[in-house]
């Protein structure tokens, strides 16, 4: 029934250029996750347009969306969602193997990430044997395995302490510089949000840009 409808996002107009590094802040329940889910095809808008690389989402069938999601978009969630019965290394290579990727190349890339993220010695550990920060790094590596052009991260540091959150953000920044990847991440932490080039504050269904970021950063 219409009166039961909850309108989360409205009058929302947002453009992102390739290679941008953007953070989304806003109180709990304002719709940050909803926005990331819409951009990542995990949800459908009841109204409006979403255009990715010139393609209107509405023109795509579900299999086409799934294919674009698999090839173009990487997700990192607040909770890592690693498969508990597989090792760290297996968690990285399984999605690639399922989508028919070359096994040797996939394993090589997985090991490269484990090395870059300082957890190669944890390759054979199961998620239950990893610390929160290690599991989150595996989850970031998994999101990057398919060389996504767009990385969507929903409170990726929500479970990490301050130091690990900073380290995690360092990785994101490095990736963004080395892999030509566009990053949108949602966070409650304003200090982390300030590390992005643009901070968008989500309130009452739409974004407002926090313009005085540079000034704030050096206060
Ligand atoms: N599956 C769902 N069914 C109905 N309402 C939902 C569902 N998921 C989220 N909502 C509602 O939509 C609104 C936006 O939720 P969303 O999860 O996007 O907020 P958020 O900004 O990510 O919050 P948080 O910071 O707590 O993660 C909230 O009012 C929430 O209660
Ligand atoms: Mg959320």
Low-confidence stretches: none
Helix content: 25-40%
CATH class of the domain at 2-83 and 149-217: Alpha Beta
Give me the secondary-structure category: alpha/beta
CATH H level of the domain at 2-83 and 149-217: which superfamily?
Answer: P-loop containing nucleotide triphosphate hydrolases
Query: What about the largest sheet?
Result: 6 strands, mixed
What small ligands are held by the chains?
adenosine-5'-triphosphate, magnesium ion
Please count the beta strands (DSSP E, at least 2 residues each).
8
Rg, Å, rounded = 18 Å
Order of SSEs, N→C? EHEEHEHHHEHEHEEH
Distance between the termini: 49 Å
How many DSSP H or I helices? 8
Characterise this structure.
With 219 residues, the chain is of the alpha/beta class. The protein has a domain at 2-83 and 149-217: P-loop containing nucleotide triphosphate hydrolases (Rossmann fold, 3-Layer(aba) Sandwich), CATH 3.40.50. It has helices at residues 32-39, 62-72, 88-98, 103-116, 132-144, 162-179, 190-193, 213-217; strands at 21-25, 51-52, 55-56, 73-76, 150-154, 182-186, 198-203, 206-209. Helix 3 (88-98) runs antiparallel to helix 4 and helix 3 (88-98) runs parallel beside helix 5. It is globular, with a radius of gyration of 18 Å. Magnesium ion binds next to helix 1.
């Amino acid at each position: 029934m219409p009166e039961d409808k909850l309108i989360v996002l409205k009058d929302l107009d947002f453009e992102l250029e390739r290679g941008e590094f953007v953070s989304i802040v806003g109180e709990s329940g304002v719709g940050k996750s909803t926005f990331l889910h819409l951009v990542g095809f995990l949800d459908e808008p009841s109204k409006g347009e979403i255009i990715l690389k010139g393609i209107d989402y509405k023109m795509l069938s579900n299999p086409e969306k799934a294919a674009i999601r698999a090839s173009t978009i990487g997700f990192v969630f607040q909770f890592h969602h690693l498969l508990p019965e597989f090792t760290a290394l297996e968690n990285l290579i399984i999605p690639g193997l399922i989508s028919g990727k070359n096994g040797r190349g996939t394993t090589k890339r997985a090991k490269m990430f484990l090395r870059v993220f300082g957890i190669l010695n944890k390759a054979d550990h199961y998620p239950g044997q990893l610390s929160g920060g290690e599991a989150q790094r595996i989850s970031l590596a998994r999101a990057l395995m398919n060389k996504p052009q767009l990385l969507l991260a929903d409170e990726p540091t929500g479970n990490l302490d301050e130091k690990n959150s900073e380290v995690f953000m360092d990785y994101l920044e490095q990736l963004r510089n080395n892999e030509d990847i566009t990053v949108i991440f949602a966070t409650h932490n304003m200090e982390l949000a300030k590390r992005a080039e643009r901070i968008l504050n989500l309130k009452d269904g739409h974004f407002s840009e926090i313009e005085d970021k540079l000034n704030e950063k050096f206060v």
